[in-house]
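Please review this pair:
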Amino acid sequence: NAVFISEKMSQKERLIRLNQIAIQQMVVLQEVESRKLLK
């Protein structure tokens, strides 16, 4: 968020980008958990 602020990104755009990042992180965590369950 601090990086986006320093890049003069609007609050709306920051919220969208942070939400996208959070979703990507959740997907990665789900994939890791799925692999653990398969072993």
Observations:
- Residues 2-38 form one domain.
